[in-house]
Amino acid sequence: MTSEQALPPYFNINPNTALGGLGAPTTTEDFARIARACEAGRADLASRGLEDSGGRSLRLFSTWEITRYLIPVATGHFRRVLKQNPVLPQGRSETTGGAKWFTFDEVLRLRAHFAAEGSKTKEYLPYRPKGQPAKLAAVANFKGGVGKTSTAAHLAMSAALDGYKVLVIDLDSQGSMTSIFGGTVADEWQTVFPLLARHHARHLQGENQRRMDRGEAPMPLDDTLSDALTARSETLIQKTHWPNIDLIGAQLNLYWAEFQIPVWRMGSRGWKLWDALTDSLSEDGILDQYDVIFLDTPPALGYLTINGLAASDILLVPLGASFLEFDSTGRFFDMLHATFGSIEEAENMAARALGRDGLAFQWDAVRAVVTRFDPAQQAELAALMQAYLGPTLSPHRQGFTALIGQAGEQVQGIYEADYRDFNRETYVRGRETFDATYAAFKQLLIGSWHRDVQAAQQAAQ
Ligand SMILES: Nc1ncnc2c1ncn2[C@@H]1O[C@H](COP(=O)(O)OP(=O)(O)OP(=O)(O)O)[C@@H](O)[C@H]1O
Ligand SMILES: [Mg+2]
Known about the structure:
Layout: H1 2-5, H2 15-22, H3 28-49, E1 61-62, H4 63-70, H5 75-84, E2 101-102, H6 104-117, E3 135-139, H7 148-161, E4 166-170, H8 176-180, H9 193-213, H10 223-228, H11 233-236, E5 238-239, E6 245-248, H12 257-267, H13 276-283, H14 286-289, E7 292-296, H15 303-311, E8 314-320, H16 323-354, E9 365-371, H17 375-389, H18 424-460
Parallel strand pairs: 3-7, 3-8, 4-6, 4-7, 8-9
Antiparallel strand pairs: 1-2, 5-6
Helix pairs in contact: 7-18, 9-13
């Protein structure tokens, strides 16, 4: 009998028992029921982590954390400066004489004070050339679950901690980034969709003008496109619980854009759909209001991703150090070549015929980034990937950390977690790996801004 007990569970399944556990066949209606159950559970979970006001709130920051990670001053000096300047935020402590804690708004004020009054040799504010537009960074890979959203969210938070003004744009109708930043999005009209529609509508208006100039009747705009003409980026941007991170959110209806965009494009071949997002943000002055804009994309190379990639200056492609992810990422680069190559080819044929300049997409930097790295298991594969990809693979590998994934609804990732909830060693290591991911990104950011500054200076000479 013992040998039968030891059999794996897929032997000897009784058909009657199997039938009994099967339940009735599933219909389309059942999907709605399941979706409602998920929605109710989600609302329950969300309500547990939320404040009475219903909003998400950011934790406090201690003197240790501020002087260790955010404002490069010695703790003693920090305390003295606060004492000497009673108008500065003084923080609050849980026990008399205990550590002082500050809101992030207060941290930003303190940083501004040190930048204005402190030693000029110290970097209190991050490099940001005046007069240059924001840099856009997209995180993309058509493979799912490789760490796109985690990477984008952590980069947005670390850039904000570093003092940059950040906008996050969620292009994924799964809306994970939107949840992380506590966004509420009723329908596609509160996503980037109206900006894309407006871009198309303006193009049609231009075509209509040319039609009328030729004495032909204009083509009427449908309701969607007419409504989109009045869309403005400002009305789509939401505040988040981070004082210096704003959001353009996403939800399921944004997926509609994947069907709508090709229909628009079929109707007017001259519409440069890949420019829609950049042009709209730029026209609305958004690129002058932020320092860095992060785009999270869906695990697909659809029209939204193409738009996001075409808009971006820096492209990060996360992947795990596993054979399947390496393999599929190779095919993603193949797809990027085919997609952008065919857009360029078609445009350049038209441009040559009209004697105009051709189109050549260009990114300041493209880097593959190893995520969820386990040095005990994956060192060999990562070394092989590095050998083949060379400088395209960022040398920093983002470590696997227990600090991600186990956090609750309110806390998203390591920058929002209170370090007292973790073993200090685990916290320091987890934080180190994301700080290093940010440092590698910041290197690209500063380098590409600096290249623009130099180009502008040369052009002015
Ligand atoms: N450095 C890390 N350490 C541990 N877990 C991680 C790390 N980065 C990401 N994860 C986990 O891996 C899973 C997938 O991550 P994420 O959602 O960021 O991937 P994605 O590429 O955005 O997925 P999708 O393709 O569905 O958009 C999540 O459960 C996340 O918590
Ligand atoms: Mg994602």
